Amino acid sequence: MTKHHILISGAALLAIVTGVRDAGAGHHPDDAAALIVDATLIKPLGEEGRVGESVGAGGELRFLPDDEIATISIGGYGAIGRPSRDKTLRDIYDLHFNAGLKWERSHGRILIPYATLGLDVLYMTTHEQGADGAAARTLRGSTLGVNAQLGVLGHLGDGFVYRVSATYLGAVVPGTGDDLGGLVLQLGVGKTMGD
């Protein structure tokens, strides 16, 4: 699967989410969606210091209906392996769809905890390092993954939102069999639409 296929998959997921939302009980004046831009850090887990961190940015469209406890989001990110002479580096491109629950008592809350589960489409480039620090080989491939996310979001004044989250991402790196289990940390700000 190429990056082109991932983009097509993302557009299809967006169309599905939008269609499901519009096919619901009808539009309510207090329905809202937020477009959020995130800073992203991926910390490998269980790799015993063999794989380095990846840093990048991402974005998501999150639906925030005020009269429901459900939250749905579709998004993605790109994170590039931080340079290191003695660790394997991973460039990770992700598209994901998440659904879960939020705990919100009143409109305009500053602190809204949430939890979601999701499905990821991943494209990865793994740069293995040789003994002298030079790249020994590069592997590329696509795979599916799953995630579990805990976070906090909230409204910041007139139409702005923030989001802080920690996500466990589970997948296997194609071609190597390596476990991609990692912690994805994100901090984002965005603007609501449809208020």
Overview of this structure, please?
- The protein has 195 residues and is mostly beta strands.
- The protein has one helix and eight strands, in the order αββββββββ.
- The protein has an eight-stranded antiparallel beta barrel with strand order 1-2-3-4-5-6-7-8.
- A hairpin with a 5-residue loop joins strand 5 and strand 6.
- The longest helix is centred in the N-terminal third of the chain and has 20 residues.
- The protein is elongated, with a radius of gyration of 18 Å.
- About 12% of the residues have low confidence.
How does the major sheet shape up?
Answer: 8 strands, antiparallel, barrel
* Net shape: elongated
Strand percentage lies at: over 45%
How large is the radius of gyration?
18 Å
Low-confidence segments, given as residue ranges, are 4-8, 12-30
- The side-by-side strand order for the widest beta sheet comes to 1-2-3-4-5-6-7-8
Structural category is: mainly beta
Give the end-to-end Cα distance, rounded to a whole number of Å. 38 Å
Share of helical residues: 10-25%
Q: Helix count?
A: 1
The average pLDDT score comes to 79
Count of DSSP E strands? 8
What is the helix/strand order? HEEEEEEEE
Write the layout of secondary structure elements.
Blueprint: H1 3-22, E1 33-44, E2 54-63, E3 70-81, E4 89-102, E5 112-129, E6 135-156, E7 160-170, E8 182-193
Antiparallel strand pairs: 1-2, 1-8, 2-3, 3-4, 4-5, 5-6, 6-7, 7-8
Task: Provide a quick synopsis of the model.
With 195 residues, the chain is mainly beta.
Characteristic terms for this protein:
single chain; 195 residues; mainly beta; 1 helix; 8 strands; 10% helix
